[in-house]
Amino acid sequence: MIDFNLIFNEAKKTESFWDFSQNWFDVLTLVLTILSLWLAYWLGEKGYKRDKKDKLDEQKQLIATEVNLFKINLEQLLEAISNQLTALEDYKVKQNFSLKYYPDLHVDFLKFINPKFIYEHIGFQNANQINEFNELLRSLYGLNDIKLSIKDSVRNYILRYNELEKGFYLYRKLMYKMMHEIVSRNIDDLIPVEGGFQINFGTNEFARQFFQLNESVLENPELLDENKQLIRPKLIELFVLPTIEICKQFIPINADAIEVADVANEVNSSWVNMETITNAHFNEIDGHIAILENVRDEITEYLQ
């Protein structure tokens, strides 16, 4: 016979155990959930710190690379500046219309340099160094067109000088062609003397003085240098200016004196203008030298 009381009591025990087991699983689930959330947070925090450290390391490496690249470009520019300064000084001494240009004299690298990284490397709290760096940048940007400016200065000077030189070279016409024509027109007699002839110009005093001046200048050893090259200032001093003074005595009576004076004045005027533009040009070159020297000194100080 079935004992229903026994079955009921056993069922009550099973229900009690199930209630306890269900509570235990709920607590375990809650604990596991909390542990999972904490683990996820810990892993996330660890990953964030690692990523942050990696980014800081990457930023430091980027800054170091940028600073190093900037210094390398400055060193190359410094060498180009030194070479160009040597060439400019040599050009000033020789004044031979030939100036060597260095292709590395440019600041194109500034297009690829981010100054922010240099500022971070210096440190924004270092006001003096920041100001020095700003001055260096201003000076570097000032070099942007200096090579073109130097080239334009030399080219324009040579073009202007060559034009004026054409007027100066009229001294050849004055000294040879016109002298020959005046002598031929005004010769009165040839008097034999030791070693040649003496020309008698009769009453034409201008022809006689002009001829004597020409002859004395051509025989003057001061007119040529050791390489037998014409010394232009000496030509002006010994021949052109004295010719102008002689002409003044016979103008307007003597037609030859008027013609000679016109040419002599053009020669002298051309020479004066040649000297003027030469002085102006080399003053301009001195200005370029001063700019390059200033940048050279600032770069040297920065690299130290």
Backbone CA Rg: 47 Å
- Give the termini distance in whole angstroms: 110 Å
Reported for the largest beta sheet, the result is: 2 strands, antiparallel
Strand content: under 5%
In spatial order, strands of the major sheet run 1-2
Molecular structure report:
By secondary structure, the protein is mainly α. It has helices at residues 4-94, 115-122, 127-142, 146-168, 170-186, 205-218, 232-250, 255-303, and strands spanning 189-193, 196-200. A two-stranded antiparallel ribbon has the order 1-2. A hairpin with a 2-residue loop joins strand 1 and strand 2 (196-200). Helix 4 (146-168) packs antiparallel against helix 8 (255-303), helix 5 packs antiparallel against helix 8 (255-303) and helix 7 packs antiparallel against helix 8. It is rod-shaped, with a radius of gyration of 47 Å. The relative contact order is 0.09.
Question: Topology of this structure?
Answer:
Layout: H1 4-94, H2 115-122, H3 127-142, H4 146-168, H5 170-186, E1 189-193, E2 196-200, H6 205-218, H7 232-250, H8 255-303
Antiparallel strand pairs: 1-2
